[in-house]
Amino acid sequence: MNLAERDQHIIWHPYTQMKTAALPVPIVRGEGALLFSEDGKTYIDAVASWWVNLHGHAHPYIAEKVAEQLRTLEHVIFAGFTHEPAVTFAERLLQILPAGQSRIFYSDNGSTAVEVAIKMAIQYWNNLDTPKKKIIAFRDSYHGDTFGAMSVSARSAFTAPFWPFLFEVEFIDVPTAGKEEESIKQLEKLAAQGDIAAFIYEPLVLGTGGMIMYKPEVLDKLMAICQQHGILNIADEVMTGFGRTGRTFATDYLQQKPDMVCLSKGLTGGTMALGATSCNEKIYEAFLHDDRSKTLFHGHSYTANPVACAAGLASLDLLLQPETQESINHIAQRHAAFAASIKDLPQVLEVRQQGTILAIEFYDGATSYFSDLRDTLYSFGLDNGVILRPLGNIIYVIPPYCITDAQLDQVYQTLKGMQEIVAGKRQHPRPDSIMLHD
């Protein structure tokens, strides 16, 4: 049996209906933006392996730093102990994080980074003996798959079996074009109630919601309203962090600054799992008390794993190099040019682009994760040597920063081919408007 057949007998894959799914593609090696399969095929990783890979696969510099750390210290309990990689990484993260962040709490992944922020926010008010327990989030948001993260995410088919167990959240509209004022009014009304603990948001780009994008100016207004009413702001930068939006963090486009920031995905350059939640000193000081019950009782076995921190430090070295920053700008410019070239095609409902993130929403009757178009586009991408994982009828590109012009050309050519597939499916003209994200 080959690797895929062996896999089918024992593995349960994420986000996969195992009864109907095709055999997984067995990958045996990676280099740069490329992945190589067991049967000798080559694929461009145009989604950075679920948005985590910044600098390319099997990067020699990161590998070297990880190997050095493995020969020194692989892990140590982080309660009552510390180590150089965790301290140095926290110091360096705080140098580049939005102004005001002063503490780093390590965890394991994006969902746990969000869980930590939620618990910090709720316990912050509890420690201050102030009855604030509600959280505000965007209606189409996604913050992870653990229960707290699910609670502050959109109610969808993904979470339907668990709805009775999720805590109540106040949802407001995403402030996309034409909805800015309504979103602001919704937040103002909720903020006036006086019982809101925090507002959690994906800054500028809602990833799993369909790469929905909105302007920094309106987020500044929403955050300012929260600050005026004593509501904590939580920036979920798990996907948008480390250059994805064109700047180091999406928050760097804003005047207002958050109280907490959630990080993962690009945190280690895609090398291994690590999460981090930063907070300002105000949050931290609310947990300093002679009463031990006011402690933040949260932790993970692999909290601040030294090897993961070493990978994060190496990735940060690479991210801050001028060549990487030039690559980020170059990818953004190429995305913008390609978006302009296809935006008026009748098969294209909308093109969205922010930094290195490009999303094309094809007209398919209605936007849905379960669109039949999804499997067709996914298979077409693989047939053309490009890994693209559609969100229903929305196709997106978030490549590693090392991707070459030739590889980007191949990705864009594949996207043009997808447009032709959609064109073949429909004969009627592009509508003037359509209900998005049903």
From TrEMBL:
Extract the HAMAP family matched here: BioA (MF_00834)
Q: What is this protein called?
A: Adenosylmethionine-8-amino-7-oxononanoate aminotransferase
In the record, the note on similarity to other proteins reads:
Belongs to the class-III pyridoxal-phosphate-dependent aminotransferase family. BioA subfamily.
Q: Where does pyridoxal 5'-phosphate bind?
A: G110, S111, D236, H300, S301
Q: Where is this site: Participates in the substrate recognition with KAPA and in a stacking interaction with the adenine ring of SAM?
A: Y15
The annotated pathway is: Cofactor biosynthesis; biotin biosynthesis; 7,8-diaminononanoate from 8-amino-7-oxononanoate (SAM route): step 1/1
Q: How is the quaternary structure described? A: Homodimer.
UniProt xrefs under NCBIfam families: bioA, PRK05964.1
Coiled-coil ranges per UniProt: none
Protein encoded by which gene? bioA
Tell me where in this chain the PTM N6-(pyridoxal phosphate)lysine is found.
K265
Query: What residue range is the signal peptide?
Result: none
- Residues bound to substrate: W50, Y142, K265, G299, R389
What task does this protein carry out?
Answer: Catalyzes the transfer of the alpha-amino group from S-adenosyl-L-methionine (SAM) to 7-keto-8-aminopelargonic acid (KAPA) to form 7,8-diaminopelargonic acid (DAPA). It is the only aminotransferase known to utilize SAM as an amino donor.
Q: Show the GO MF annotations.
A: 2 iron, 2 sulfur cluster binding; adenosylmethionine-8-amino-7-oxononanoate transaminase activity; dethiobiotin synthase activity; pyridoxal phosphate binding
Instruction: Enumerate the UniProt keywords alphabetically.
Output: Aminotransferase, Biotin biosynthesis, Cytoplasm, Pyridoxal phosphate, S-adenosyl-L-methionine, Transferase
